Amino acid sequence: MTPIRLAVEPLELPLRHTFTIARSSERVSRTAIVRLRWNGLEGLGESAPIPRYGESVDSVAAGLTALDLGDDPYAFERLLAGLTPAQMCGLDIALHDLIGKDLDRPLWRLLGLDPARTPQTSFTIGIASIGETLAKVREVGTHPVIKVKLGKGAEVETIEAIRSVYAGTIRIDANEGWTPERAVNVLAELAKHDIEFCEQPIPAGSPEKLRWIRERSSIPIVTDEDSKDASDLPALFGCVDGINVKLVKCGGIRGALAMIHTARAMKLKIMLGCMVESQILTTAAAHLSPLVDWADLDGPFLTAHDPFAGITYADGKIVLPDGAGLGVRETSAASLS
Questions:
Q1: CA-based nearest residue to 320, from 105, 91, 95, 11
Q2: CA–CA separation, 250 vs 233, rounded Å?
Q3: What is the pTM of this model?
C-alpha cells in the first residue's frame, strides 16, 4: 500500500448576514479542510473548531500535520488516538470519505442506513433587531422549520413578531443566555406560540438546574453546550428531553454514533447540529440523519459562497448524495486565509 498523505487548508466562508448568538457575532466563518491522498484517491474532511473549547484552525492544523498516518486508512483506533475533538473530527470525516471511495459506496450505505428516512432541517435565524429578524424570516419563505436564536433580551416580542408572519415550526436556542428563573418565565410566556423545544437555556454545567427548568416548563428542553460527547450524557439523565450532537464537539462520525446510541439507551431525543461550515462537514453529519429525530444542518443556507457541493434539500428535507464516501464535490477553489 502507498502511504497516506495529509494536508490541512484553512477555509474562509463569508456569511450572508452577520450571525449573532447570545455570546458572540461573526461575519466570516473559518474552518479547516483536511485532505487525505492514498492509492490515487482523495478523502475530504473538515473541522470547525470552537474557541470556547480551546481549539482553533491553527491548533487543528498543527496537531494533524504532525501525525505519521502510515498506509492503512481503515486503522481508525490507531489513527485517531490522542487527538483533540476538533482534530479528530477533521481526520475522522476524511477517513470515512476515503474508505467510502475505496469501496465505491456512499457513507450512508456503509452504515446500513435508509436515505429516505432523513428529517427536515431547521433554518437558523440569528439575533438581530425585530425588523431585521422579520426580514430574515421572510427570506426563509416556506421553509417548514426555523430555529430562532435568543438570549439577549426582547425574546417574547421577537417570537410574537415572528409568529405574526410565520406559521411553520419554531425552535428556540438561548445559547446559555438565561438564568434558570428567567428561563422558566420566558418559556411560560412563549408556550402559547407552539414552540417545539428550547435549546440550552442556561450556562452548561448544571444538570440539576436544567431539571428544575424542565419540571416547570411545557416546552421540551434540549442541550447543546452540555452535551459535547457521549461521556456527558449520563449526568443529564432525567434532566432534559433531548440533546444536540455536533461532529466537531464529539470527534466526528464515530463520536456522533456513540452519542446517538447512548442517547437512545437513555430515551432521549436527538438533534444533529452544525456550526457555520462548508458542505463537507454538514454533509458528513447528514449521512447520520436517518438515525435522529431532528436536524439543524443549515450551514449551506448561511454562507454566501461555498466551494463544495453535497447535500440538497426538498422542502426542508435533507437529500443525501449517492456518490462514494461523503458524495461531496469541489465546485471551485477554496478561499484560503
A1: 105
A2: 12
A3: 0.94
The tens digit of pLDDT for each residue in 273-329 reads 999 999 999 999 999 999 999 999 998 888 988 999 999 999 999 999 999 999 999
Residue partners of 153: CB distance under 8 A and separation at least 6 = none
Query: Using CA atoms in the order 209, 214, 220, 224, what is the torsion angle rounded to 10 degrees?
Result: 10
The pLDDT value recorded for residue 23 is: 63
| Cα(55)–Cα(200) distance, integer angstroms | 21
Q: What is the pLDDT of residue 337?
A: 42
Distance, in Å, from the CA atom of 136 to the CA atom of 329, rounded to the nearest integer, reads 29
**What sign does the dihedral 128-133-139-145 (CA atoms) show?**
positive
258 vs 1: CA distance, rounded Å: 30
Contact in structure between 284 and 247 (CB atoms under 8 Å): yes
Is the CB of residue 206 less than 8 Å from the CB of residue 54? no
Sorted by where each starts, the structural domains of the chain and their CATH numbers stand as 5-107 (3.30.390.10), 110-330 (3.20.20.120)
State which amino acid sits at residue 266.
Answer: M
Per-residue pLDDT tens digits for 59-105: 999 999 999 999 999 999 999 999 999 999 999 999 999 999 999 99
Confirm if 223 and 244 have CB atoms less than 8 A apart.
Answer: yes
What's the Cα-to-Cα distance from 43 to each of 73, 93, 98, rounded to whole Å?
10, 8, 4
Mean pLDDT calculated for residue range 142-152 = 95
**Cell reading at 160:** 410574537
Question: How do beta strands 269-273 and 242-245 pair?
Answer: parallel
Q: Can you give the pLDDT at residue 172?
A: 98
Specify the DSSP element, H or E, that contains 169: strand 169-173
